[in-house]
Automatic annotation (TrEMBL):
InterPro entries: DAP_epimerase_AS, DAP_epimerase_DapF
Subcellular location: Plastid, Chloroplast
Keyword Metal-binding: no
Family recorded in the similarity comment: Belongs to the diaminopimelate epimerase family.
Reaction it catalyzes: (2S,6S)-2,6-diaminopimelate = meso-2,6-diaminopimelate
Any GO MF annotation of the entry: diaminopimelate epimerase activity
Pathway listed: Amino-acid biosynthesis; L-lysine biosynthesis via DAP pathway; DL-2,6-diaminopimelate from LL-2,6-diaminopimelate: step 1/1
Species of provenance: Brassica campestris (Field mustard)
Protein name: diaminopimelate epimerase
Keywords: Amino-acid biosynthesis, Isomerase, Lysine biosynthesis
Length: 361
């Protein structure tokens, strides 16, 4: 479109078409916005104001209030993101490939995750440059602003996000540096993502837990008293800490559990110096498990990928299940395999984009 020097140009007030949102670099989405009554577009240094009367005004930068949403967008007060979920465990994905510093702070992330006052999510994930020869680095902030080492559902979303912003089609695998070390997701032909989640850590002090090792240095089917009730727990780290329980001495509890009440008591238990994620599990068969989760820093979520991996490890170690299982989470099933050959855990499941947008930060 030619911009005339005159103040009014007769063109229809159609916004530029966003033919393929993902094929653009997200950073360049700043050239578009959609207001309700009046729209402004930037072309070079000039700004076009499109009003309902089908005219376009060329206005200079000085005439635009610096407090407006559109100006904030240009001065760095707006974050572009894509919202994804893996079985209802939902994340705000940020294209941070141009910097090794997250584009927003932990406090801003907590605000964005708020389901009433923000975008709403279980966490914010940053796609950053790789280190030590890896393709990318993934960092994540929980919805309370804390930073965990790893996120299983998040890494599947991360892989799909990278494929979209890099315009990759078909089967693809990436090496990703995380707080839990190297993680390797592979997008399958059917769009599901299979992730090599690495080797589970069982040594009590590395999980970390203050519970004393009862099988060598591992804590397996040990007693943990929570709020006066005795639970059997197995402690596993998938880079982040997990406390897996198949119930109290009285038996399984998954369906009757008051999660918001009991969850925080596990999370903040003195035996877990870095807090913990807790999985409450019921064995349906030797290859079919069902779980509910209370996540450290995020509360009750619909799914937890690292948690599903941890509970299969716990179920195998407690002699309750085979190494290859379907795990039913509130948001849907994950396929988990703890391979004997390499001791690695493999997780397969979906990841879906929901919407993209811009948020004031
Ligand atoms: N939902 C995640 C785990 C996210 C991190 C967790 N809340 C923690 O603090 O360790 C998953 O899918 O693994």
């Amino acid at each position: 479109m030619e911009i005339a020097a005159a103040s009014t140009v007769s063109v229809a007030p159609q916004p530029p078409r966003l033919t393929n949102a993902f094929s653009r670099k997200l950073s360049s989405v700043s050239s578009l916005s959609f207001g309700s009554v009046e729209r402004k577009y930037c072309l070079g240094n000039a700004k076009l104001r499109v009003s309902a009367s089908s005219s376009v005004d060329v206005v200079t930068a000085e005439k635009i209030s610096p407090a407006s949403f559109l100006d904030k967008r240009e001065t760095g007060g707006v974050l572009h993101f894509v919202k994804y979920h893996g079985l209802g465990n939902d994340f705000i994905l940020v294209d941070n490939r141009d910097s090794s510093e997250p584009k927003i702070t932990q406090e801003q992330a907590a605000k964005l995750c708020d389901r009433n006052f923000g975008v709403g999510a279980d966490g914010v994930i940053f796609a950053m440059p790789g280190v030590n020869g890896t393709d990318y680095t993934m960092r994540i902030f929980n919805s309370d602003g804390s930073e965990p080492e790893m996120c299983g559902n998040g890494v599947r979303c991360f892989a799909r996000f990278i494929a979209e912003i890099e315009n990759l089609q078909g089967k693809h695998s990436f090496t990703i540096h995380t707080g839990a070390g190297l993680i390797v997701p592979e997008i399958q032909d059917d769009g599901q993502v299979k992730v090599d989640m690495g080797i589970p850590v069982l040594k009590a002090q590395d999980v970390p837990t203050k519970l004393p090792g009862n099988k060598g240095e591992a804590v397996i089917q040990a007693e943990l008293v929570v709020d006066g009730v005795s639970w059997n727990v197995t402690c596993v780290s998938m880079g982040n800490p997990h406390c897996v329980t198949f119930g109290t001495k009285g038996g399984p509890v998954v369906d009757v559990l008051n999660l918001p009440e009991i969850g925080p008591k596990f999370e903040h238990h003195e035996m877990f110096p870095a807090r913990t994620n807790t999985e409450f599990v019921e064995v349906l068969s030797r290859c079919h498990l069902k779980m509910r989760v209370w996540e450290r820093g995020a509360g009750a979520t619909l799914a937890c990928g690292t948690g599903a991996c941890a509970l299969v490890v716990a179920a195998v170690l407690e002699g309750r299940a085979n190494r290859k299982c379907t795990v039913d989470l509130p948001g849907g099933p994950l396929e988990i395999e703890w391979k004997q050959e390499d001791n690695h855990i493999y997780m397969t499941g979906p990841a879906e984009a929901v919407f993209y947008g811009s948020a004031l930060v």
